[in-house]
Design a protein that fits this description.
The complex is a heterodimer of chains A (421) and B (434).
Chain A: E1 4-8, E2 13-19, E3 25-30, E4 37-43, E5 51-54, E6 57-60, H1 65-72, H2 81-87, E7 91-96, E8 101-107, H3 111-123, H4 129-147, H5 150-162, H6 176-180, H7 184-194, E9 200-206, H8 210-218, E10 229-230, E11 243-248, E12 254-260, H9 268-286, H10 291-298, E13 307-312, E14 317-324, H11 328-340, H12 347-364, H13 368-381, H14 387-393, H15 397-407, E15 413-420
Parallel strand pairs in A: 3-9, 11-15
Antiparallel strand pairs in A: 1-2, 2-3, 4-8, 4-9, 5-6, 5-10, 7-8, 12-14, 12-15, 13-14
Helix pairs in contact in A: 1-7, 3-8, 9-14, 9-15, 12-14
Chain B: E1 2-4, H1 6-11, E2 16-20, E3 23-29, E4 35-45, H2 50-54, H3 56-60, H4 70-79, E5 84-92, E6 95-105, H5 116-129, H6 140-155, H7 161-173, H8 187-191, H9 197-208, E7 210-217, H10 223-233, E8 254-260, E9 265-272, H11 279-293, H12 299-307, E10 313-319, E11 324-331, H13 336-351, H14 357-372, H15 378-390, H16 397-405, H17 409-418, E12 420-429
Parallel strand pairs in B: 3-7, 8-12
Antiparallel strand pairs in B: 1-2, 2-3, 4-6, 4-7, 5-6, 9-11, 9-12, 10-11
The chains are: A alpha+beta (421), B alpha+beta (434).
Chain lengths: 421, 434
């Protein structure tokens, strides 16, 4: 097998790229002097993949299907997936997001057996009526746990306001009612449609031999081919509601403002540039180094609970800003004013924030787990290795200022408030 | 003022050791890493000064002689490629510990190869020795702002019902013991803080704290001299003795049921054990706890969650140097008693030795696998080494692995039999949730 090897000369990092004959893309990050190996297989299938088409027929799954499937793949005929990994000293787990599901292990020995097992558990579902029914109660308790989290509820209230027709408004695990409608047939159908080599990426980081990893990946029994056509379009339309309020018993009321982004798209280059520039804009305004934040704090309008973020996917994107406050109305007003404020950027400013983000990127290279997750996601996006680094190095004042100007708009803004009951 | 310390060198294998200006320094240049990390640890007893100690990191962010306010200090860190410098304060068993930390990307991996180590240490020195909060004219409004923030953060634990239940249960079970003092010192103590106290506690940490320094990663050639400049400026230590952890005897189980508006009940069982005074009993107890509820291989996961579907989560955690073990679960309120009963039934199974050799082998493989990975992370390795020093132990990860491999079935059974149930606490939902 001939690998494509990509190196970053400054960091000294290298990534080996290949695709198996069955179509599974693979990235290997050899770390010969380390002890731990992390392997992640990620599928481009998450909680928002509810509507798709097969043979001209539209299928709509209940919310929570991707997460339910993730749970069920940890059960096989031997009923001991976790125990098998543990016996080899490995930890194994999975996570479901809006658009991806990842399965991973970390181990300091028996990497070969662990990788074979990881690839087997995603390739051979053991889904029966009995084990699906048994899992329902466990997942319902997980759903309940999240429904007790005020931050979680506030976030999904906001997404519901901003995205009236996009499934990102549904919680990842679904609801107790929605998971009641999930059957073994639903799960098997989802697995057979989305768990395919053409919809997956495998990344392995650690003291491994690339050729051995490639050979193991070649033995993966995942079906080949692409997933079905998703009926999931970009949501760039108007927001559904400008406001949602709820009451919960919380230590302090919570305010979360979101601005719907109309620039979401499937092009990885544009999406990464947008994410990097947005984070620089938000840091300029709301990091502890920001005079704007300090002034808001000094006026008593917000405190250190203030947090800003950006979530940008292929079909949706949103900038968020929130805080906790005994006076949520005043805090909301202050946050709105801050978002509307014009920030003057300087070269020193951009250089400082570039450094901060470059430092964060280098730190990410210290962990095999971070590396494996980042590279499996990057591969699925179709982005080349180190492209974030290149975007950071090329960051300009003009590009940040332009992003700042397009990001925020009152007519795309919604607020979610959780008051104290 | 730099001396080789053969004794320390032998104890902390893998590190070079020096005594620098009266402070033990362990360091390891490890070229696998692109970052470096240095920690100066200072340890004092856990007492009613905890609030004044715990608020220190927040107050010390408000500038120094060179950086007059919080934003300018934050900008200095950003310019150092997001370096982190400053103190962390927390509980370690029944002591209060301040960690002065410096962490950054090494200059050789950055454009222009800047002197990141020197500059980051200079920033830590500036922050430690010239913190604005130590000055008599430190603005009262900044102190009040941080006090209000600290109070809000201490109350916000209520929003995480699992953590809140744990805090309530530990406070009740350990009432009267230093361990009951919360990480933030408690709301009443924060409200009663005198503005002068935090600076006094900073001085107390530096003058009387049991002190130790450890560094690892992409370090410069001459670490002792590079670090010596900072250590030479700290006050001479007049260490005061630390109190020993109380040994408790079994007492009648206390059952507590509290209520809060929420959906899912939280169960916390608190068990006590003799404080492990040697490595063998320490490892045996940890192995037993892993077998009982230490992950997806454990009895609690397999029996309580997977076989009986009683809950989403059920696990054990512990501070075995205090002799305290917790079982925590989130479940429907109607299943709280069943989860508690089954959890304790599983403990009885272990007490009776009803577990397979394969289960024990799996537990040891899980624990030793995790320890073997410690050397791959600066944060984990320094935390492990600092933890060993705080507890006056002297094992490196390989020695610790060997100790776990020596754990026998009989030792695990004995460890299970050493536990006794002390508190059975549950936080239950009330109806008018939302």
């Amino acid at each position: 097998m001939t690998f494509q090897i990509v190196r970053d000369p400054v960091l000294g990092e290298e990534v080996w790229l290949a695709t198996t004959p069955n179509g599974l893309p693979l990235r290997i990050l050899p770390r010969p002097k380390f002890r731990e190996t992390a392997a992640v297989i990620t599928f481009q299938y998450g909680s928002t993949d509810l509507d798709f088409e097969i043979g001209g027929k539209r299928i709509t799954d209940p919310s929570g299907t991707a997460h339910y499937l993730e749970h069920k793949l940890f059960e096989d005929e031997e009923l001991a997936v976790f125990q098998r990994f543990a016996a080899r000293g490995a930890s194994v787990n999975a996570q479901t997001g809006f658009s991806r599901t990842s399965y991973f292990f970390q181990a300091t020995s028996q990497v070969r057996d662990n990788l074979i097992d990881l690839l087997r558990l995603v390739s051979k579902p053991h889904i029966t009526q009995e084990n699906v029914d048994k899992e329902r109660g466990i997942i319902a308790q997980e759903v309940r746990m999240y429904e007790d989290s005020a931050d979680y509820c506030t976030t999904f209230d906001l997404l519901g306001c901003l995205f009236p027709s996009h499934p990102v408004r549904f919680t990842v695990g679904g609801t107790v009612d929605s998971i009641a409608a999930i059957t073994p047939e639903t799960l098997l159908q989802s697995w057979s449609l989305f768990y395919r080599t053409g919809n997956a990426a495998l990344a392995v980081a650690g003291p491994v031999e690339p050729q051995e990893i490639y050979d193991l990946a070649c033995a993966c029994a995942l079906p080949s081919g692409a997933p079905p056509a998703r009926l999931l379009s970009h949501d760039r339309g108007p927001i559904g509601a400008a406001r949602r309020e709820r009451k919960m018993v919380v230590a302090r009321p919570k305010v979360l403002i979101g601005v719907k982004d109309h620039t979401s798209g499937s092009d990885w280059q544009a999406r990464t540039e947008r994410a990097v520039r947005t984070n620089v804009v938000l840091d300029s305004m709301f990091a502890t180094s920001s005079p704007l934040r300090e002034a808001m704090h000094q006026r008593g309008e917000v405190d250190d609970s203030i947090a800003a973020g950006f979530m940008g996917d292929r079909t949706f994107a949103v900038t968020t800003l929130g805080c906790e406050s005994e006076n949520p109305a005043a805090a909301e007003l202050s946050l709105r004013r801050a978002l509307a404020q014009h920030v003057e950027y300087t070269d020193e400013h951009i250089e400082r924030l570039r450094r901060r983000h470059l430092g964060g990127f280098v730190r990410g290279c210290e962990s095999v787990r971070s590396l494996a997750f980042a590279h499996s996601a990057e591969q699925l996006d179709g982005a080349p290795p180190f492209h974030t680094l290149a975007i950071l190095r090329d960051l300009t004042l003009a590009s940040v200022a332009a992003r700042s100007a397009e990001m925020l708009s009152e007519d795309r803004l919604a607020v979610s408030v959780t008051e104290r009951a | 003022m730099i001396a080789a310390v053969e004794d320390l060198h032998n104890r902390f294998a893998g590190f070079e050791a020096r005594m620098v200006h009266g402070c033990p320094l362990l360091f390891r240049r490890d070229q696998r890493f692109k970052t470096f990390r240095l920690v100066i640890v200072m340890q004092r007893p856990l007492d009613d000064s905890m609030a004044a100690r715990a608020i220190l990191p927040a107050l010390m962010q408000h500038g120094s002689k060179r950086y007059p306010d919080r934003p300018s200090l934050a900008r200095a860190r950003e310019s150092l490629y997001g370096a982190s410098t400053g103190p962390l304060v927390g509980k370690h068993c029944e002591t209060a510990v301040m960690r002065l930390q410096a962490e950054a990307v090494a200059g050789e991996f950055l454009p222009g190869r800047p002197d990141q180590f020197g500059d980051t240490l200079a920033l830590l020195k500036e922050l430690t020795l010239h913190a604005r909060m130590r000055l008599p004219n430190f603005p009262a409004e900044l102190f009040e702002r941080e006090r209000a923030q600290f109070l809000a953060e201490s109350r916000s634990i209520f929003d995480d019902k699992g953590l809140f239940a744990r805090q309530q249960a530990v406070s009740l079970a350990c009432a009267g013991e230093p361990y009951a003092i919360l990480d933030h010192g408690g709301e009443a103590a924060i409200a009663a803080l005198d503005p002068a106290q935090p600076a006094q506690m900073l001085t107390d940490f530096m003058q009387h704290g049991r002190r130790f320094c450890v560094a690892m990663g992409a370090l410069p050639e001459d670490v002792p001299n590079a670090v010596g400049d900072l250590l030479s400026l700290l006050p001479t230590v007049l260490a005061k003795p630390l109190t020993k952890t109380l040994q408790l005897t079994p007492r009648a189980v206390v059952r507590v049921r509290e209520h809060a508006p929420m959906l899912q009940a939280k169960l916390v069982l608190i068990l006590r054990a003799p404080v492990a005074d040697n490595v063998a009993s320490h490892c045996a107890l940890q192995a037993m706890l892993s077998l009982w509820g230490g992950g997806t291989h454990s009895r609690l996961f397999r029996e309580v969650r997977e076989r009986l579907s009683l809950c989403y989560s059920a696990s054990t955690s512990s501070d075995i140097h205090k002799g305290i073990v917790l079982v925590q679960s989130g479940c429907e309120s109607s299943k709280v008693e069943a989860v508690a009963a089954e959890s304790l039934r599983q403990l009885d199974e272990l007490r009776a030795g009803r577990f397979s050799d394969q289960e024990l082998t799996t537990v040891i493989a899980t624990i030793t696998g995790a320890i073997a990975a410690i050397d791959d992370s600066l944060a984990s390795r320094l935390s492990f080494t600092a933890g060993q020093w705080l507890l006056e132990n002297d094992q490196d990860p390989q020695q610790r692995i060997a100790s776990y491999l020596a754990v026998s079935r009989e030792q695990v059974v004995a460890a299970a039999n050493s536990l006794w149930l002390d508190h059975d606490y549950a936080l239950l939902p009330v109806e008018e949730v939302r």
